[in-house]
Amino acid sequence: MIRWKCDTCNKVWIYPIKKCFYCKDKITRIESKPKKVIGITKVVVPSPLHPIVPYNVMLLEDEFGNRLPRKTMKKFNVGDDFEEPVAQTADAVSIVKVKYDVYDAVKNAFELINYAPGPDDKILLKPNIESAAYPYQSVTTNPKVLDAVIRFLILHKVDNKNITVAEQSIFGIDTTKAAAKSGILKVCKKHEVSFVDLSKSEFQEVSSGDYKFNLSKEILSNDQIINLPVIKTHPTYGISAALMNMARIVDVDTQKQMSGFDFEKKIAYLNKQIKYLTLSDGTIGMNYNGPFVTGEPAFLNILFASQDPVAIDTVFSEMAMFDLPDHIKIANDIGLGESDIKNIEIVGYELDAVKVELKVPTTVSPNRNLEIIDGNSWSGEYFALYSLMGKFNNIAVKKATVLVGDNINAENLPKERLIAYGDSAISKLEESGITPMASIKGSPPEPVESYVLLKKLLTNEGEASINILDQAKSKIVSKLNKIGG
Amino acid sequence: MTNFGLENRSTQDMAQDAVFQALNDADIDLSKIDACVSSCMDLCNNGERQRHSASMLSSLLKKQIPIIRIPAGCAGSGHALWHALNLEYNNILVLGFEKLVANTTSQVTDEIIMGGERIYEQSEGLTFPAQNALVAQDYMSKYSATMNDLALISSKNHENGEHNEKARFYKKKITIEQIEQSPIIASPLRLFDCCTNANGAAACIISKDKSDIKIAGSGLFTDFLSPVEREDMSTWTSTIEAAKQAYRKANLTAQDIDFVEIHDAFTPIELISYEDLGFCKKGEGKNLIRDGTTKLDGSLPVNPCGGLKAKGHPLSATGLAQIYEIINQMRREVNDRQLSKTKTALAQNIGGAGSTVSVHILRRTGG
Q: Which residues of chain B does A68 touch, with a Cβ-Cβ cutoff of 8 Å?
C-alpha cells in the first residue's frame, strides 16, 4: 500500500504527488502493508471487468489507519488479520495488480516469488521492442516497468554496469530507433545501463532437441536473464508472452529456419536452452488483434512474475479465458515447465479474481477485404506484410487472400485471387501444385516494390496479374523512394 | 418529469417531454428562457453515442443561448440546479436526463462502476452496492442498526412509491417479507436495499420573477472520491456541509423542515442521511424509522414519492425529480400521498458514495 504525504502539513494523498499544493514542500512516499480486514462484502452481479461471480471485496486497513479495498475469492471475516503468503515452490506465479506506483507492483511481484538478485550478478533484461511503437500502444514493454525493474536491481546493490538491456527488433526495423520511440532507450540512459542491439551481436550455435539455433552470445554471457514480455494476443499463436518474447534472441537465418512447420516445437526447444525469470508486463497489455498496433490496449493494470515461463504463460492464457495455445502445451511436454493450472502455485491475487474475457484475435489484417493466412511465417515476412496491409486502409480493395509462410493445408486455400507473399509461401504453393494469382518474391519482399505490385493486384477485379512491366515499375519506384529519403 | 422506467425512449424524446411539462407548469414561453443548465452522463453503452449534449439540446429546443452541462454522476441535476441558482439570468431552464437502461445488467453495472475510483475501487470490483454494503457494515457495527432497519426503510419507500404514477414501482406492492427474502446483491445488502435503474428526465424553471415557491437555501459540497480516504466512512461530510450551507442561507434549521426527499440509492444512505442532515443525533437514525417518524403520516415524512428505491434512479434526472415531488406536495397536487404539512422541504442529491452532495431547501411563499 502506498500513500504520499506532505512532510509539513501531513496531508495524505492516494495519488502520486510530486509536491504539496499547499506547502510547496517535499512529499514522502510511504509504504505499508495491509494488516486487518475491517469489512467484507460478497458481490454477485458480474460486470465486464469482473465476470466471475460471486467474489468478495475486503476492506483492509494498515498500521496507519489507511484503508484499501481488495478483491478476493477467499472467505474472510471482519477482524481477521491479513498477510499475503509468499510462494512455497520455486516455480510459483505471482499475480499483482498495479496501482499508481509501478515500482511497488514490481517489487511485490518479485518478493512474492522470493526473488532477490545478488549484488555481483550480471543481469540481462530482455524487453519486447519488436517494432517501433509508442508506449501507449502496448506493443513494446512499458518503459515504466523497465525503469522499476532496474531500480529494484540497483536497490539490491546490483551494479548498473552489470545490467544490460538487450533486444533485436523484427527484421527491417532499426532496433535502436525502435527502442527510442518506445521510451526504453531513455530509461537505459537514465540509469546508465547499456543497451545492446542483438542483431549486431555475435551468435553461437547451440543444440536443443533435434534443432540447432544460432543464439546471441550476449544472451549466453549473463548470470541471469529477466524476460520482460508484454502480454498480448496473437491471431496465429493465441497469445504472445514469455515464450514468444524469446523468438528473436537468435540470428535472422535461424528465425527464418524456425518459421513454418513445427514452429511451436522449435520455440519451445529454443526456450529450453536458456533459463530466465519472467516479469510479464500487463500494465496495459493487448486485446483482440495483436501483436502489433492493430491490437487494442487492454488496460489490465497487472503484472505476473515466475521462474517458470510455461506456468506464467499458462496463467496469462487462463486469465484471458483463452484455450491453452499449442506452443505452451508442447513446452510442457518437453519438460520446460508446467501448463496444468491445477499444478501451478499462484500467489498474490487469485486467478479467478483477475480473469477478464479478452477478445479472441482473428486476424492481423487491418482491411476487412484482405484475408491474411499465416503459415507460421517468420517475423520478418509477417511484419512486412502487416505494415504493407496498413497502407491499403484508405484504398478500396477488391477481396483477396494473401498467404505468408508455409505451414498451411493447401487444400483449404481459396481458389481465386490468392497472392503468395514471400519466398516461403511461393515455395509451398509450388510444392502443392497451386498457381496463385500472383507471387511477390523476397524474404521479406522489398516493401515499396511490394506495395506497387499489390496495389495493382488489389485494385483490379478478377484474376489480375503481374507482368514484367509491373516488376520494372515497382523497382523504379523503390529506387526513387530511396533517393528521396 | 417523465415516468421513470424501462421504456426504450430516446434521450431527445424524454428531454422534450420534461421541458414541455416545465414550460406549461411555469406558464412561460420557451422564448423567455435565457439560459439552460443541464445534466447527463456521457454513457458509452446506451447505443446513442451522443456527446456534446449541450449542443444537442440547442438543436432540440432551437435555442442558441448559453447551455451548460454539469455531469456529476447521480448528483447531476441537483448540481445543475445549484449552478443555475448562481447564474445571473432571469429565467433558466434546468434539465436532467438519462438513458441508462439500454443494455445488459453487466454493461449497465459497468457504466455505473465508472463513477468509482478507477484503480482502488473499479479494478477491485467495488461496485456501488458493494461500496454501500461496506458503509452499512461500518455504520451497523458502531450504532447497532440492523438489517431490519434497512428493510423498514425500503418498505416505507415502496409503500409510497406504489401510489406514485411516475414511479417504476407504481401499483406494485412490495412486502417486507419480499424485501427480507430478496437475493443478496452485495452482502449484506439485498436486491430491495438497492434502488432500481431507470430511464427518465426531469426539468424545472427558475426565475427571478416571484412565484409561489422559492428556493430558500442551497448548498454544494465535494468530498474525496472514495469513502476509504475519509475519516469516517459512515458519516458523509458532503451531506453535513452542503446542508449547513443550505440552512444558513435559508436562515432555518433542521427542525423547520416539514418533509424531505433523501437520496436513497441504497437503504443505508437514507439511514445515515437522517443524521447527517441534522434530523437526529449520530447513531439515532434507526429510531426515526423504527418509530415511524419518517413515514407518510409521521412528523417528518421522508421520500413521499417513493425515493430512488421505488421510483427508480436515472442518474442525472434524479435531483430534479426530487424537486418535482416537493413542488407538487407544496401545491397540494399529489393524490394518494398528499402530506398535510408542506411549507418547507429539503432535497438531498448525492453523487458517488458521498463524493458530492447538493442540498436545496424550498419554501412555499404563500400560506
A: 120, 228
The C-alpha cell that represents B239 in the structure block? 451531506
- State the Cα angle at A140 between B110 and A147, rounded to 5°: 95
Which residue from A42, A47, A69 is facing B184, i.e. has the nearest CB?
A: A42
Q: Decide if B114 touches A, using CB distance below 8 A.
A: no
Cα separation, A35 vs A82, whole angstroms: 5
**Residue entry with cell 499475503:** A84
Contact B277, B262 (CB under 8 A): yes
Instruction: Report in angstroms the alpha-carbon separations of B318 from A181, B4, B76, B200, B205.
Output: 48, 10, 8, 9, 16
Omega of the bond prior to A444 within 30 degrees of 0, cis? yes
Instruction: Answer whether A43 sits within 8 Å of B183, measured CB to CB.
Output: no
Which of A330, A258, A320 minimizes the C-alpha distance to A295?
A320
Sign of torsion over alpha carbons B179, B183, B188, B193: negative
Give the C-alpha separation, B53 to A108, whole Å: 44
Interatomic CA distance for residues B284 and B150, integer angstroms: 14
Compute the distance between CA of residue B215 and CA of residue B218 in angstroms, rounded to an integer: 7
Confidence band of A483 (pLDDT split at 50, 70, 90): low
Bond preceding residue A16 cis, omega within 30 of 0: no
Q: Which three cell numbers stand for residue B41?
A: 452522463
Among the listed residues A326, A303, A327, the one whose alpha carbon sits nearest the alpha carbon of residue A316: A303
| Cross-strand partners of B222 | B356
pLDDT band at A485 (very low <50, low <70, confident <90, very high): very low
Start-end of H helices in A192-323: 217-220, 252-258, 263-272, 309-319
Give the ipTM of the model, two decimals please: 0.92
Separation between Cα atoms, residue B265 and residue B127, nearest integer Å: 13
Residue A393, pLDDT score: 75
Query: Running DSSP on this structure, what letter comes out for residue B2?
Result: P
pTM, two decimal places: 0.93
